[in-house]
Amino acid sequence: MTWLSIIVAGILTYFTRMTMITLVNKDMLGDKIKAVLEYVPSAVFPAIIFPAIFINDYGLFVEINDPKIFAAIVAVIVGYLSKNIIATISSGLVSYWFLIFVIFS
Amino acid sequence: MLSKKQLFTRGMFDISPHMLSVIPFGIICGAIGVDLGFDPYLVYAMSIIIFGGASQIVFLQLLSGGASSLVAVTSVGIINSRHLLYGAVLSEYLEKLSLIKKLVISYFVVDQGFAESNKFFKKNKTEQHLHYHLIGTGCTMWVCWQISTLSGIILGSFVPEELGLKFTIPLTFIAIVVQDLKKIDHVIVMITCGLSSLLFFDAPFKSYIIISPVIALFVASLILRLKK
After folding, report:
1. Are B170 and A53 an interchain contact pair (Cβ–Cβ within 8 Å)?
2. Is the complex ipTM more than 0.90?
3. I need a surface site. Which of A94, B78, B83, B94 has the fewest CB within 10 A?
4. How many CB atoms are located within 10 Å of the residue A105 CB?
């Protein structure tokens, strides 16, 4: 049963990937829609970022002084200035570790 | 004009920094699956059949929490529905390809790969074999995902939970959008999406993950109208 569910979930997931790529052609997308689609990264990724920072494993909002919030701010500043992906991720992770293992421990 | 091989390599190169978050996250995904008591073969098969980071964990957590398979499958479908938006954006660049090629490439479309290839496409619209960049990012992600989830399954409970490696996921996506903070319209769209995701977090089937982008894109269309 679990195997069957995984296969169905896999087919569903594949359809989400394949549908637009195969069905949409240039004539279907007007300039207006194309202009809106320019915003897709900015409109999608915060839905992954925000809950991962502000909501804990139990589905509750974190405290205002949660280490994740500070670490995310560090990552944003470092990322903005350095324009470097590795610097962004590692600065966020290292400051998170520093906060949970040194300051808050 | 870049050759196919050059574009493929460029894709691999552009996606590689994200491995800093994808590999730890893959290890955690594998470890959680085994930890929840699922058959290791089943946990690994998901990486091939579904190939979709967070949705794999959610699927197993729902099932082990006593949810029906229908709920678990629906949740995976809804979480991954964001690929519809990626596909709509990418379709413009993949239009000339044969159906078979489109069907194969589709399997490799993932968040980070889409983001990096889309950035490259926008700057290099005239290149002929652009899709090789997407294949490069997608295949790199695929190989790393397979190796890391498999490692997680083997390591199992040896993976130290207190390191908080899950936190690398928001960091990877911060790295993707952070340069757009220079543009006020993008900032408004990002904040709309982020706040909506917190507001609708408890909506059924994890649907906040598609509700908030739809709201944010609606706001984007309003911004475009005001700009004129």
Report:
1. yes
2. yes
3. A94
4. 6
A-B contacts (CB, under 8 Å) = 264
- Average pLDDT, integer, range B117-136: 95
Enclosing H/E stretch for B90: helix B82-94
Q: Where are the domains of chain A?
A: 1-29, 39-103
Q: Using a CB-CB distance cutoff of 8 angstroms, which residues of chain A are in contact with residue B84?
A: 16, 19-20
CA A64 to chain centre: 21
Q: Whole-angstrom distance between the N-terminal and C-terminal Cα of chain B?
A: 36
Query: Cα–Cα distance between B83 and B178 in angstroms, integer?
Result: 21
Check A40 against B217: CB less than 8 A apart: yes
* Chain A interface disruption, residue of B91, B114, B163, most A CBs within 10 A: B91
Provide the whole-model pTM: 0.95
CB nearest B190 (choices: A18, A46, A89): A46
Name residues whose C-beta falls within 8 Å of residue B205's C-beta, 6 or more positions apart in sequence.
B71, B74, B75, B78
pLDDT digits (tens, 9 = 90+) for A41-79: 999 999 999 999 999 989 999 999 999 999 999 999 999
Judge: B213–A14 Cβ closer than 8 Å, yes or no: no
CB–CB contact B115 A41 (8 Å): yes
Residue A45 near residue B192 (C-beta atoms within 8 A): no
Under 8 Å between Cβ of B89 and B114: yes
CB of A8 within 8 Å of a chain B CB? The answer is yes
For residue A63, the SS3 value is: coil
In eight-state DSSP terms, residue A101 is I
**What is the sign, positive or negative, of the torsion defined by CA atoms of B58, B61, B67, B73?**
positive
